[in-house]
Design a protein that fits this description.
The chain is of the alpha/beta class. Helices cover about 45% and strands about 15% of the residues. It has two domains: about 5-185 and about 375-395, Glycogen Phosphorylase B (Rossmann fold), CATH 3.40.50.2000; about 190-370, 3-Layer(aba) Sandwich (Rossmann fold). Strands 3-2-1-4-5-6-7 form a seven-stranded parallel sheet, with helices on both faces. A six-stranded parallel sheet has the order 10-9-8-11-12-13, sandwiched between helices. Helix 5 (about 135-150) links the parallel strand 5 (about 120-125) and strand 6. It starts with 6 loop residues before the first strand and ends with a helix.
């Protein structure tokens, strides 16, 4: 595009907290080709979330922050955020507005439509159509999303499973309007000096060589179902003589409730469950682990499971959201139907008792995620989709 104006993209993210949307927005803002110019804007994390601005700084990005864009619906703050987004659109004059996740999608797309932006794209990183709200609120949110989808040029799902949910189950948009583009990550850091990192991390965590370290990583929120995880922990401790330490990584609104339960378990079993709060260097932490779990009731594409496999760590997870798109069941981990406590415990015990099985799954993990979830593939797929939508305008 020598001599021509670059294609301008305004990228809007809900808020800069740890999770898939931040990584997605970071790599797309940083690594698109020189044909594109990207401006990244978004809200701040909530009090119960970890700030992810250090990730953007690591990749040389300086976003515009909109403090008014908050997770909880609020007419005053939402309207203020909407007005700010419109001002930015009028000044930046984007060819494409690309929103990521629900709040950014609602406010950003409305602002883009109002300003007659040529192409509007939205990525569903997850959805709130079950396990978050009551029936009435869910019906309202679905109606809002359907109305927005009708005017949106392109909708992106991050997995085939999510596309089916959006089109067939929840009827947000027709299948031909939804493009599947999986997330992408900088996975190489999970492979660099992994043996050295493991020794250092296990020394730091005071783990003996024969102690099996199990972690669950994510917000301490009801949707993540740490109560189920702790039910599994108690059953495992009653079923094996192996030395085990369980790590709960993250923070959130459920912290006090989880801490109380952890204290009860540790009072009976010794200091077997450790709560670490958020850990920024997750690559080093993962290196010290042997098994990583996820017990969520709803997910988009769980980043912790992709990072676990990149680290060569086997997984046990509930069968929710896009999990089956990111875990090779029986090869890199075990996928268990939701609320199946006995089966989840059984799969965990297989990995705890069988070191050979853990090693086989460990070797399978990296090869499974290396090509599928690298950011270079993400950027290539997204650029092609942008050109496809732009070319439709000429038809």
């Amino acid at each position: 595009m020598s001599g021509q104006r670059k294609i301008r993209i305004l990228r809007i993210i809900n808020r800069f907290n740890i999770g898939g949307p931040t990584f997605n927005a970071t790599f797309l803002s940083r690594y698109l080709s020189d044909d594109f110019e990207t401006l990244l804007i978004g809200g701040l994390p909530e009090e119960d979330e970890s700030d992810s601005l250090h990730i953007l700084e690591e990749y040389g990005l300086k976003p515009i922050l909109i403090p008014e864009m908050k997770r909880t619906p609020n007419f005053k703050s939402d309207h203020a955020a909407y007005r700010k987004i419109k001002e930015i659109i009028k000044e930046f004059q984007p060819d494409i507005v690309h929103t990521h996740a629900a709040k950014a999608g609602a406010l950003g797309r409305r602002a883009a439509f109002s300003c007659n932006v040529p192409v509007v794209v939205h990525t569903f990183h997850g959805h709130v159509f079950h396990s978050y709200f009551g029936k009435f609120k869910t019906i309202i949110f679905k109606a809002i999303e359907r109305r927005l989808a009708r005017k949106t040029n392109g909708i992106i799902a991050i997995s085939d499973i999510q596309k089916n949910e959006l089109s067939t189950i929840h009827r947000i948009a027709n299948q031909d309007k939804i493009k599947v583009i999986p997330l992408g990550f900088d996975l190489n850091k999970f492979r660099v000096l992994s043996d050295e990192k493991r020794k250092a991390m296990r020394k730091n965590l005071k783990l003996d060589d024969d102690t099996i370290a199990v972690a669950i990583i994510g917000r301490l929120a009801a949707i993540k179902d740490h109560s189920f995880f702790l039910d599994v922990v108690e059953r495992i401790l009653d079923s094996t003589s192996k030395l085990i330490r369980f790590f709960i990584v993250g923070d959130g609104l459920e912290r006090e409730k989880i801490e109380k339960r952890v204290k009860e378990i540790n009072g009976r079993k010794g200091q077997v469950v450790i709560m670490t709060s958020w850990i920024k260097d997750i690559a080093s932490f993962n290196a010290g682990m042997d098994i990583i779990c996820l017990t969520s009731k709803n997910e988009g594409t769980p980043v912790s499971l992709i990072e676990a496999q990149a680290s060569g760590i086997p997984i046990v997870t509930t069968d929710v959201g896009g999990v089956r798109d990111v875990v090779n069941d029986g090869e890199t981990g075990f996928i268990v139907p939701i609320n199946e406590l006995e089966l989840f415990t059984e799969k965990m015990l297989i990995l705890i008792e069988d070191e050979k099985k853990r090693k086989i799954m460990s070797q399978n993990g990296w090869s499974f995620v290396e090509q599928k979830f690298h950011y270079e593939r993400l950027v290539r797929d997204m650029e092609n989709y942008y050109w496809e939508l732009l070319n439709k305008l000429k038809q």
